[in-house]
Design goal:
Elements: H1 18-28, H2 72-76, E1 84-86, H3 89-98, E2 102-107, H4 112-122, H5 125-134, E3 136-141, H6 146-160, E4 167-171, E5 177-181, H7 195-208, H8 210-225, H9 240-252, H10 269-282, H11 285-300, E6 314-315, E7 323-324, E8 327-328, H12 329-346, H13 349-365, E9 376-377, E10 380-381, E11 384-385, H14 393-399, H15 405-411, H16 432-439, H17 443-461, E12 469-470, E13 473-474, H18 475-492, H19 495-511, E14 519-523, E15 526-530, H20 533-550, H21 553-570, H22 602-617, H23 620-639, H24 645-654, E16 659-665, H25 668-680, E17 687-693, E18 718-723, E19 726-727, H26 734-741
Parallel strand pairs: 1-3, 2-3, 16-17
Antiparallel strand pairs: 2-4, 4-5, 6-7, 8-9, 9-12, 10-11, 13-14, 14-15, 16-18, 18-19
Length: 747
């Protein structure tokens, strides 16, 4: 099994403290070799396996304080002999009272190497005793506390030039980091010092060379204070970074396998969406090819679950065959939206089919009975990565009918020797038409037999031990899936998807706003942690999409309310968003994220939301907000455009003539049908859709929506298409409306 690179693709680190970090490393771990930059995991030949996701109810081992937490990741460590604390006042106060350094370990429930380090070190009685004797040990779920993860990941990057999870950092009682890394083995191996030696060396240094540690901590604190990712808001907006980013994508594109760069390969939806926008604007087929080839290769590869739908986190190889088998809600939300865009642009029904597969997987396996969406599924089951998903030839033959078996085996490349440790990961190896020719069948018959075989195998697979489920509900990630499902309902004409999006939005608005304050996480009836900027931004994006698909004005009202709250509580004097509120007292520094990674930054999403709200409400302040964020990050976009590829799309939209579609009439259901036909009719990169019921034009009784004013129906459904602040002749039939929008493809 190839190694798990459970890490973010971070931008090039700022090696601001390289010399002092090496000095401290030598002080702490003299005689050991320094970890290599890059992959935080050991070699690809390692056979390490993870434990199951959560302790079993019958577990009778003693517990630590983590047993009182809700996070599945923290609960995984509740039976460790380590005297773990959750991050909070009790732990931080004890560190100061006892004048002990803090050992902070950050990870998440589906992180393979987090599991490995737990089993090797945190479950080891001797290592735990060493930790308990010299440190205050704190565990953090990075998905619950992305603010802490952001700060200490930047610190470790600055010290070592690499980052990943598990993230292990040593702090002073004042929360200042002075040494850190990712995975540490239980003894010297993989070119890394053993964890016991690291612990003992740092404990000795704390006792005997405290002045050097404090000097190192002071320098790192100063460096973190200087890490400002936004400018002063005076930069001139130019579209040039979009062209520069596309040139970089061309240079790094893998024309054979799709994607950018070499293994490991992560789905980069922001790159692909930028390519689709560029083709729509300029007609450059080279950028269209990059996006579509990548989507094709991913959908054919093992990274896609051909039985149950949904995508794994990333591929360990360059051709998307061997995934790291964990499935994340945020990946699948963004990929579903991207496949919908590709379907709208190309008309290829295969892309719609892949999006349906993602949605059906989420609604089947990742949805709480009350409507919220779960966070992730682990890569491991029964202690083995991928065991739930792989097949051998005899298993497949036993399940399938004789007519189905040869077609399925050829379609998905199933062999006796296998393609993954003697087993088979399903990947598309033969097209339907080639199978039809070879077996003398009609294409439709081949499709029917393959679908029948898929259902049989899925049913058998459902009886296996499932990978662990992280069933916490996160506001930000739910916002992404709400956005995708609402768009899917319109583009695919599926009421079920819109209903799921609306239900999840209602869940967040009711269950995750205790006392009117939006929360980050919900689990087992408990909403906890005040929402971060990304929670507001991504959830608002979902609410806007639900409004445009349903014309339920309550969702637009909520979007406006939360968007305004976001900028009131998180924006700096130049209008750029911090990740956290100013009154959050347990943070070393207050950060702004300047890199769109596996999820886009709060600023990137909020800028796009602001433009959408400007179109929907006509309020100039929203255009000003989008401009302020773009100006604030313009120096970064000029210097490293692909670091903010999602924000680049808003920059591109800033220079484009956005399209507004206003539907006016008595019948909301008919208006929604026209809006859905517009979504199905083709791709418009910047389309805002709103509805004016007869005689009504307000978000509230006191407010009016300027874009709706003067747009009356006269009794019949009437469509107003506006571009660049100029409206065309009203249309009272859906066909002319689609023509006016430039959507000429037959439905």
């Amino acid at each position: 099994m190839k190694s798990d690179l459970s890490k973010r693709r971070w931008p090039r680190p700022r090696r601001i403290l390289a010399a002092s970090a090496v000095l401290l490393f030598l002080l702490a771990c003299s005689g050991s070799s320094r970890p290599e930059s890059g992959d935080p995991s050991p070699s690809a030949n390692s056979k390490e396996r993870a434990v199951t996701l959560t302790p079993t109810p019958s577990d009778s081992r003693p517990t630590n304080r983590l047993a009182l937490e809700k996070s599945p990741y923290l609960l995984q460590h509740a039976h460790n002999p380590v005297d773990w604390y959750p991050w909070g006042e009790e732990a931080l106060a004890r560190a100061k009272e006892e004048d002990k350094p803090i050992f902070l370990s950050i990870g998440y429930s589906t992180c393979h190497w987090c599991h490995v380090m737990e089993r090797e070190s945190f479950e080891n009685e001797e290592i735990a005793a060493l930790m308990n004797a010299h440190f205050i040990c704190i565990k953090v779920d990075r998905e619950e506390r992305p603010d802490l993860d952001e700060i200490y990941m930047q610190a470790v990057q600055a010290m070592t030039g690499q980052g990943g999870w598990p993230l292990n950092v040593f702090l002073t009682p004042d929360l200042v980091p002075f040494f850190g890394g990712t995975y540490f083995p239980p003894d010297d191996r993989y070119g890394r010092p053993g964890f016991p030696r690291v612990l003992q060396s740092i404990a000795d240094a704390w006792d005997q060379r405290r002045d050097e540690i404090e000097s190192q901590a002071d320098r790192l604190r100063e460096a973190l204070d200087r890490l400002e990712v936004s400018g002063d808001g005076t930069a001139e907006l130019r579209r040039a970074p979009v062209a520069a980013a596309l040139n970089q994508l061309r240079q790094n594109f893998d024309s054979k396998n799709g994607g950018w760069g070499s293994a490991p390969k992560f789905p980069r939806v922001d790159y692909g969406s930028l390519c689709l926008r560029a083709f729509y604007r300029d007609g450059d087929e080279s950028v269209l090819d990059m996006a579509l080839i990548t989507l094709d290769r991913m959908a054919d590869g093992g990274i896609y679950d051909h039985l149950g739908g949904g995508f794994a986190r990333y591929s360990t190889d360059e051709r998307w065959l061997v995934p790291h088998f964990e499935k994340m809600l945020y990946d699948n939300a963004q990929l579903a939206l991207h496949y919908l865009e590709a379907y709208q642009l190309s008309g290829n029904p295969h892309y719609a089919e892949v999006a349906r597969g993602i949605f059906d997987y989420v609604l089947r396996d990742m949805t709480h009975p009350q409507g919220g969406f779960y966070s992730a599924e682990d890569a491991d089951s029964e202690g083995e990565e991928g065991k739930f998903y792989v097949w051998n030839l005899s298993e497949v033959k036993e399940v399938l009918e004789p007519e189905e078996f040869p077609l399925f085996v050829e379609r998905y490349g199933i062999s006796r020797e296998g393609n993954f440790e003697g087993q088979n990961i399903l990947e598309v190896r033969a097209s339907v038409d080639s199978l039809a020719r070879r077996h003398g069948l009609e294409d439709q018959r081949v499709t029917e037999l393959l679908e029948s075989a898929r259902r049989r195998l899925l049913e058998v697979r459902s009886q296996r031990v499932r990978p662990g489920l992280d069933d916490k509900v996160l506001t930000a990630w739910n916002g992404l899936m709400i956005q995708a499902l609402a768009r899917g309902g319109a583009v695919l004409g599926e009421e079920t998807y819109l209903h799921a999006a609306s239900r999840a939005a209602h869940f967040v608005l009711t269950e995750m706003r205790p006392d009117g304050q939006l929360s980050r996480r919900w689990r087992d009836g408990e909403a906890r942690y005040r929402a971060y900027a990304e929670d507001y931004a991504m959830f608002v994006a979902g609410l806007i999409e639900v409004y445009e698909a349903s014309f339920d004005l309550d969702f637009l009202r909520s979007a406006v309310e939360l968007h305004d709250e976001l900028f009131a509580d998180f924006a700096d004097e130049d209008g750029v968003l911090f990740n956290t509120r100013a009154d959050q007292a347990d943070l070393l520094v207050r950060t702004k994220t300047g890199y769109d990674g596996s999820v886009p930054t709060a600023n990137s999403v909020a800028a796009a939301n602001a433009l959408s709200l400007f179109e929907l409400t006509g309020e100039p302040r929203y255009a000003d907000q989008a401009e302020a964020i773009l100006r604030g990050f313009m120096p970064t976009l000029e210097r490293s455009p692909l670091s903010l590829a999602h924000l680049l799309q808003t920059l591109d939209a800033w220079f484009a003539d956005r399209v507004e579609l206003v539907l006016a009439g008595e019948d909301r259901a008919l208006a929604r049908d026209w809006a859905w036909r517009a979504r199905r009719g083709g791709y418009l990169s910047d389309l805002a859709i709103s509805y004016r019921p007869a005689g009504k034009a307000g978000i509230t009784a006191e407010e009016s929506l300027p874009p709706l004013e003067g747009k009356e129906s006269g009794g019949a459904m009437t469509a107003y298409v506006c571009r660049g602040f100029a409206c065309r002749q009203p249309r009272v039939e859906v066909g002319p409306m689609l023509e006016e929008l430039g959507l000429l493809r037959s439905e």
